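Section 5.1 Outputs to date
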Amino acid sequence: MELTNNLSEKALYDYKVVKRAITGDEQAYAELFKRYKDSVYFMILKMVNNRTDAEDLMFEAFEKAFTSLNYYSPQFAFSTWLFKIASNNTIDFIRKKKAKIVSLDKDDINPDDRGYINSVPADVLNPEEETIRKQRAEFMREKVAMLKGRYRKLIELRYFE
């Protein structure tokens, strides 16, 4: 890890704490966690809008960051690196959750906001749709029957047989 001169005092302090953590200093891990847990949690909460999920994702982000501390580059502030891990992890979580969620509620006001679909299409017509289809077919047959011979025969062959 090579240190760059573009870091703030806070980032330099974090860098020193990260170096201690890499050597196995438990207090350093605790200090990094205590220092950033609230800000990471609230960033994630804004993304998922669920306190339980936000808390779980916050702990996951710290776990990923702490197990990957050897890959941290002091070219950027530790906080920037940590927030990027947390946001990427949260985005992955949201993508997985969207793929699983299906709302069957018809009264869902704006399903696009939450990634839901409003209904699941059926392979068969419901009784109302079946009745409408039959009524339309009967109506069309009546109108076709009013046509002259060869036009009627042409339509009947094309659409009814």
